[in-house]
Amino acid sequence: MQGKLLVLGLLAWSWGKSLAAAEWQQILDRGFLIVGVQENNPPLASRNKSNELVGFEIDLAQELARQLLGSRDKVKLIPLKNTDRLEALWHDRVDMLIAQMTVTGNRSRLVVFSPSYYTDRAVIIYPKTKLLKSLARPQIAVLHQSSNISVLQTELPQARPIGVSSYQEGFTALLQGKIDGMILDGLAARSWLQTHPQIALQTTAHFSSLAVALPQGIQYAELRQKTTKAIEVLKSEQWLTDRVKFWQLNPVEYK
Fold first, then answer.
1. Do the Cβ atoms of 27 and 90 come closer than 8 Å?
2. Residue ranges per domain, the chain?
3. Does pTM surpass 0.90?
4. Which H helix or E strand runs over 184?
5. What is the pLDDT of residues 36-52, one digit of tens each?
6. What is the mean pLDDT of the chain?
């Protein structure tokens, strides 16, 4: 109950204060978007050898800046931890989130989602030397505040969830034998499967949509409308399809 009151209090506070980084006219006056992203989740968003942010979601943030403000350069990217994403949006540190935000019913009560820009599938990775279903109480890593927590409860109800702060933390624990497996989005599993042949994959029946997360409230309506229209244009013009191919996001290994 206290958690619900805290969420409601945060929302009421963000609605009522003078906004620093949210309303459309203020964004126009500022001259650039502020977008919350990730920085350790290839191929969606990571840093290259030059320490530059690159990836499918980085391309999307830059293209939205072009669609909304006329230039791909008119965007400031703010790297965020998984647990900090919603708070950054509520506290007006960012105008929107393009940070592997999975659309869920609970989150839809806290933010407004754009049309989906990608559909992924949850998977469980584990050492080939183990049979997860034969273990009485397998310890499975899951990202804090991830929608995959409920997926794990459905797919492997006997599992003991182990919260981790990042996929890398979970994968390191898996390689060290501290846990039996990890549930994560298929895209995040791909690079590890390619470089670690000792790791096996179990698909789940859960598909999830990724979308841009935007703040609630009538004062944000124009930003939401423009973002929605821009995503729809990128779909109709096949821009999203082209970037999916460029970043090799098609999950062919686990369809």
1. no
2. 2-119+208-254, 121-207
3. no
4. strand 181-185
5. 999 988 899 999 999 99
6. 89
